[in-house]
Amino acid sequence: xxxxxxxxxxxxxxxxxxxxxxxxxxxxxxxxxxxxxxxxxxxxxxxxxxxxxxxxxxxxxxxxxxxxxxxxxxxxxxxxxxxxxxxxxxxxxxxxxxxxxxxxxxxxxxxxxxxxxxxxxxxxxxxxxxxxxxxxxxxxxxxxxxxxxxxxxxxxxxxxxxxxxxxxxxxxxxxxxxxxxxxxxxxxxxxxxxxxxxxxxxxxxxxxxxxxxxxxxxxxxxxxxxxxxxxxxxxxxxxxxxxxxxxxxxxxxxxxxxxxxxxxxxxxxxxxxxxxxxxxxxxxxxxxxxxxxxxxxxxxxxxxxxxxxxxxxxxxxxxxxxxxxxxxxxxxxxxxxxxxxxxxxxxxxxxxxxxxxxxxxxxxxxxxxxxxxxxxxxxxxx
Length: 382
Prior knowledge:
Elements: E1 2-5, H1 10-15, E2 24-27, H2 34-46, E3 55-56, E4 66-70, E5 73-74, E6 80-84, H3 109-119, E7 123-128, H4 131-141, H5 145-154, E8 155-157, H6 169-172, E9 179-184, H7 193-203, E10 209-214, H8 228-239, E11 244-247, H9 252-260, E12 264-267, H10 276-283, E13 288-291, H11 296-299, E14 306-308, H12 323-346, H13 350-365, H14 368-379
Parallel strand pairs: 1-2, 1-4, 3-5, 4-6, 6-7, 7-8, 9-10, 9-12, 10-11, 12-13, 13-14
Helix pairs in contact: 3-5, 7-12, 10-13
C-alpha cells in the first residue's frame, strides 16, 4: 500500500512517516494542482488573497492508495486520512476559537464545506494526537450538528509512539551531588524559559545544580510576542551564566544524549499542543516538571513527574490574552515551579521512583507496535 504525504517536517516524521511497516511512503508536492494555479493567477489579476491554508487539492489523482495529511483537508476524490494537533479544518476561522477565555465559534460557509469533506466516504478518519485536541474538535462540531455524528464516528485519539531510550537510571540517581536539569524547546520564551531561569537564579543560593538548555530561541507572535532582538538578548545573557550550558540547532541524537545525562526535565510552558520532549525524557527515565495545559496532563502526572497548575479555560488552554492574565500566569508558574524544585532538592530519593514510573508509562501508552496497529486499522478501511 502506498501512503501519500505532503510534507517532510517534524510532525509528519513523528506521527506518520514509516509508522506502519511494509507500506511505501510517497512525498507529494503540496498544492501541485490546477486549483492552486488558478488561485495564484486570481491573486495577481484581482489583487486578492485567497486563504488556502489547511486545504489540499488534487487536480490529477496521484498513484497512491491513501493520502495522509497533517492539520489539512482534502477536497478531491482521493481516499484520505488527517492527523491533527488542535483541530481540522485549521482555518483562520477556527484555529483561535479554543484560545478564548470562553471558547466560541462563529459558524461560516468555509468551515461548513470543509466539514462536509470530512463527512464524505473517501475520508477514512481523522486522528487526534490527544484527547484535549479531540475535545476541541468536538467543541467545533457543536456548531454544525448536521455533521456531528458522522465525524464523531470517524474521530480517533492515538497518542504518538515513542521508543524506549536505554539508560542506567539506577546509577544516574545514586548519590547526586549536582542536579542536572534540562530544558528542550525551540521557543524559549513561549515554553516558560524566562520564568524558569528566574526561579533557578533564586534557588542557586541554596542548591547545587546545572541547567542544560536546548533551544534556537525562536520567537512567537501570538503569545509572548517577544521580538527577535529580545530573544537574542536573552540568549546572550544566559551564555554569561557559568551554571547554564546552551545548545542550538543540534541533531536529535545529541539531544537524546543530553537527556540521558539529566536528572530532571523542565517544560514550564505557556502554550503547547502536545509536548514531544516530555515523551523523549520519560522514555529515558527522566521525570519531567510541566504545566497542565492541553495534552500535558495526559502524558505527565504526579506519579511519574510533577504538574504545575496554571489558569486555563475549559478546553485546557492557558489564559494569556490580557496583561492581567499574563501576569497571573507568570506569578502562578514561578511560585509552583519553585515549590516543586524545593521538594525535589529536599527529597532526591523520589527521583528514581518517578524515573521508573516514567519509563513504564511510555511502554504502556506509547508502544510503537500498538500505534502501528491502530493506524493500520484506519488504513484498512480503504
